[in-house]
Amino acid sequence: MSPTFEPLPFPPSLEASRFQEFGREVKGIHPRDILTDPESFRKMEDALYRHGILLFRGFTLTPEEQYDIVKAFDTSAEQYGHGNDHEKATKTVLHSYLNTIPRVPQVQVIGHGTVRNHEGLEEVKLKHGHHKTFHRTQIPLEDEEKFGATRFFRWHMDAALYNFDPPKVTALYGIRVPQGPEQVVWYGDGSGDELAVPLGTTAFVSGKTMFDILPDEWKSFAVRARARYAPHPFEWIRNAKAVSTGFGIVSEGLETPFTELSPWEEQKRKTYPFLWKNPVTGNLHFQVHPMTITDIFVDPLPSHITERKGKYPEGGHIADLKEIRAILHEMQRPGIAPNLVYPHPWYVLDLSSVGGNSGGAN
């Protein structure tokens, strides 16, 4: 049966006019069947580039099938996005969340609480991140309890940003889903912004929208800019603290010196353009991780442009962390405004396949 693609139901908080092409629920096909039906897979790949998120509901999958579905979009992918050797990751801010399925090391188990006898794991204590362990400031406990107040823990894209390139696709599969009243995300940055979210949500934003809403001078900067990331970037920020929105690091000199990181090689550091061009739609998408960047390289305006105005018209190399973070805050913070965030309401056996169009937060 040929798959069909239906728009996702959005909450009233979302500015739907900016998300008319964002996200689709796939019906009429089991996700594993795209592996053996070339025409259905072609439609699925096209839809993922067009819509950023594809949702399958109510299907049972094995870890092997979950990995095979992701690998179908990038046949060169052989490991989890941060690599399969998690012994090397014990010094990073990610180590407490990495729980590997033994027979399928490309698939991780994430969540909170104790899980027993799951896919070869006899017992594992899952730990979900809480903003009090990572943010510079915290919401008082009484406000959490009285108002259901919470924060976005950490906005991110699923990428190691050292040694490995970002995956084309990530697949999240809901096996057990927390039940309870909604929470309210407090941005805590003086804006007064807040957002009601389902318990246990994964929040998504659109890289396309983040670029589209930029003023022209920042669009010009973005198309000329490249981001360079730290070696072992998540080890580099292990002692640093995040801003209250979960979308950046406070500049107070707490990053680990390069000389104290695990052994690293300069050629394995990653530098990527601020933008990527969608091969199906031709749209430009903003994709920069604001927490782990160390340098911005900006090309000059083309020589035929005689009016040398805007941001860094002659180009340059920006290496001051405070300046870098101020630039990224000005460019990216508007893109996580409450009316531009899709907080996904998880159901048991949801499979969300996410392409490079989107960034997410827990």
TrEMBL record:
Pfam families, per the entry: TauD
Identify the InterPro entries for this entry: TauD-like_sf, TauD/TfdA-like, TfdA_dioxygenase
Q: Does the keyword Oxidoreductase apply?
A: yes
Q: Where is the TauD/TfdA-like domain?
A: 21-346
What keywords are annotated for this sequence in UniProt?
Dioxygenase, Iron, Metal-binding, Oxidoreductase
Organism domain of life: Eukaryota
Which SUPFAM superfamilies does its entry note? Clavaminate synthase-like (SSF51197)
Record-level Gene Ontology MF annotations: dioxygenase activity; metal ion binding
What is the name listed in the Swiss-Prot or TrEMBL entry for this protein?
TauD/TfdA-like domain-containing protein
The taxonomic lineage of its organism, from the top, reads: Eukaryota, Fungi, Dikarya, Basidiomycota, Agaricomycotina
